[in-house]
Amino acid sequence: MKNRIFILFAIVALSACVPASQLRGTGDLGLVVERASGSVMLIDTSTRASYATVSGLGDLSHATAVYSRDGRYAYVFGRDGGLTKVDMLRARIAARTVQAGNSIGGAISQDGRVIAVANYTPGGVRLFDSATLAPLADIPATYGDGTQRSKVVGIAEAPGERFIFSLYDAGEIWIADCADPRHPVITRFRGVGRQPYDGLITPDGRWYIAGLFGEDGLVLLDLWHPERGVRRILDHYGRGEQRLPVYKMPHLRGWAVAGRLAVLPAVGHHEVLIVDTETWNEAGRIAVHGQPVFAIAQPGGRRVWVNFAFPDNDTVQVIDLPSRSIVHTLKPGRAVLHMEFTPRGEQVWISSRDDNVVRVYDPASFREIAQLKADHPSGILLSARAFATGF
Amino acid sequence: MKNRIFILFAIVALSACVPASQLRGTGDLGLVVERASGSVMLIDTSTRASYATVSGLGDLSHATAVYSRDGRYAYVFGRDGGLTKVDMLRARIAARTVQAGNSIGGAISQDGRVIAVANYTPGGVRLFDSATLAPLADIPATYGDGTQRSKVVGIAEAPGERFIFSLYDAGEIWIADCADPRHPVITRFRGVGRQPYDGLITPDGRWYIAGLFGEDGLVLLDLWHPERGVRRILDHYGRGEQRLPVYKMPHLRGWAVAGRLAVLPAVGHHEVLIVDTETWNEAGRIAVHGQPVFAIAQPGGRRVWVNFAFPDNDTVQVIDLPSRSIVHTLKPGRAVLHMEFTPRGEQVWISSRDDNVVRVYDPASFREIAQLKADHPSGILLSARAFATGF
After folding, report:
1. For the segment A20-73, what is each residue's pLDDT rounded down to a tens digit?
2. Chain B partners within 8 Å of A25 (Cβ)
3. For a Cys staple, B120 with which of A36, A247, A272, B151, CB 3.0–4.6 Å?
4. Is any Cβ of chain B less than 8 angstroms from the Cβ of A203?
């Protein structure tokens, strides 16, 4: 009898129970996208090691991720329209939906309740409940006579439960106010320029900037004053009259801000551009090793790390912004696709797709402090993104 | 026999097991210091509720806390020299040491391995292993003939495994390089001014600023160029010739930075000071309701929230920095001691000591969205501090 009672108790207790090893903080977790195998490698920046791999996420080429406000769940946006919620503690898929045919990224709302996904096919943005991935609303990116739908790019979270994004085919920027996520309210900015191909929001959530594929220059929108409309800046920024061969369009999201200066990869040139964020004029250029793809600010704002397009994609350069000089050049491996700093800046993680390796460096000494095997790693996305505006 | 095997299995499994309710992300957790009862109330900003109280932390008047890099543990610095490591998931004390007679705060190193505590008695800084709280090193704040020890104030974490702090009695600023935390290397800046009473580091980790109790003005140190020594700024900042009655010295740590402008509480005046962080000159003043204590930047950098010393400590004012005007006045309760924003800025938590309540507001609408009972609440400290330089 006693045994039976104990057994009953044990069954009940065990069913409400998880292994103690899963009890951990989530602030030092992250994931590495393994694009070839449709999996994500879960990582811990305290041990500088991987602790699990989660598979079954579909086509992860160009995939990215955002995090729940508690840091427990990653929302991974696959290229095939798959939206996967990964439980970082239990190392398994918590929910998954294939919500479109072709998607390019997404964001999570300021309050953490809504996931927005930007889609190429069918063109538009879809909103989902972050707890269940249940659909909340569909925002078709219609333009022209209303039957055409534009590819959506450059989606970013903006303060006030808003998302902002650009319509590639329509040449428009839209703000979706999602305070009521079942009934988003759209503000349209028409005729902003030809083929916006990417967008970013500044870390303070004030400025949205879209790059143009179809013409030179960038488009700037002041979210403190949307009534003032868009403004063109850096009209010489872009592929220009020379129509240079561009091996890979740079990522604006890599945008590095250091004090009032920002650094942008110059399209098609072996240069990065320095931008004064008070005047939005160019404040100089720095020659670099190849065509830059990402220019990432090291926390602290003094240094900017740059990677490059093919054939220079085995190299990373480190720029000291005050002296506008290159202070270090690294060779982290073949096909360096991404770099991510820990939030206080004591580590930088760099993926080398063709060497199947992720390397971790101490940015102060440039010393390699860890090395992880990974299957064609691309994006490295840490849970600290949960705390940053824009993601 | 089967039963016995199951029982054995169950005992082993249960001992390696924790309740599933403890399995959670830590990014939305925080604590509220309950100064009268020596306890901390653990809070969850997703549910906007308290989920536990942990007692036995000693004298928590003027207490503060920092977080481990994974967000799981809070390190609470009590006034009585107690250093307590609180497990936010298991809601219990993980380790505790009474390491001095009288302490004023602390910080955690960039890599998360070292806790530094600033002490009044005996004056100095002590370093501890963040895992075990085992002592690593003692840095006595000696000055004069070497037998005197100064109170230590204004301790901050600085990039490069460093801590920076001020010596109240000695009029010095010290940088402790703790790359080898058993053998910290000290850099001393002597004669910086009379009685530095508090200090702060800017969010980018570049500038350390100490306020002076014994004379007017502030002391500025450029951590990118410590060889240039300290510089005096804002020489009119302070109690001044008039020797105004000061009901509570303002906290510099409340320092709000919005773009290139910073906001400081003016000592003894019903004003906040606007500082241009490129020139370090005053860029204006804004009249407010009382003697300001904290001036806290709302994430996004447009608005600054200010609370006040007695007898105006029932009031909070919200300043719109671009227009330099007060856009809202709140009355959150009697004796408002602290305010803390969630990292993306969609909530602000405000403690009212004498009404035994913590109120949560939506900063966009100023609407109260939650209310929590607490025992004489003071500091509100969220786990997002784990990701910010300086803490």
Report:
1. 778 999 999 999 999 989 999 999 999 999 999 999 999 999 899 999 999 999
2. 26, 68, 70-73, 88-89
3. B151
4. no
Out of A4, A72, A260, closest to residue B24 by CB: A72
Taken in order A231, A234, A235, A240, the sign of the CA dihedral is: negative
Please name the residue that has the structure tokens 């057994």.
A7
Could you give the count of Cα atoms lying within 13 Å of B364 in the half-sphere of its Cβ?
Answer: 12
Mutate to test the interface with A, among B3, B26, B362 (most CBs of A within 10 A): B26
HSE-up of residue A168 (Cα within 13 Å, Cβ side): 18
Measured between alpha carbons, how far is B348 from B299 in angstroms, rounded to an integer? 10
Sign of CA dihedral A21, A387, B110, A30: positive
Q: Compute CA distances B80 → A38, B35, B57, B138, whole Å.
A: 54, 12, 10, 18
Indicate yes or no: CB of B301 within 8 angstroms of CB of A160: no
- Please give the C-alpha separations between residue A125 and each of A99, A114, A167, A208, A304, in angstroms, as whole numbers: 10, 12, 10, 17, 32
In the numeric block, the tokens 């879809």 are attached to A126
How many helices (H) and strands (E) in chain B?
Answer: 1, 35
Sequence-distant (6+) residues with CB within 8 A of B267 are B211, B237, B238, B239, B240, B244, B246, B249, B250
Instruction: Work out the minimum CA distance from A263 to partner chain B, whole angstroms.
Output: 16
pLDDT above 90 for A333: yes
Those residues whose C-beta lies under 8 Å from the C-beta of residue A225, and which sit 6 or more positions away, are none
Nearest to B14 among A13, A89, A342 (CB): A13
Q: Does residue B311 have a cis bond before it (omega within 30 degrees)?
A: yes
CA angle, A235 as apex, A249 and A216 as ends, to 5°?
40
Residues 44-73 of B with CB under 8 A from A: 45-46, 67-73
Give B205's contacts in chain A (Cβ within 8 Å): 299-300, 345
ipTM over cut 0.90: yes
Distance (Å) from the alpha carbon of A320 to chain B's nearest alpha carbon: 12
Tens of pLDDT along B108-161?
999 999 999 999 999 999 999 999 999 999 999 999 998 999 999 999 999 999
Provide the whole-model pTM: 0.95
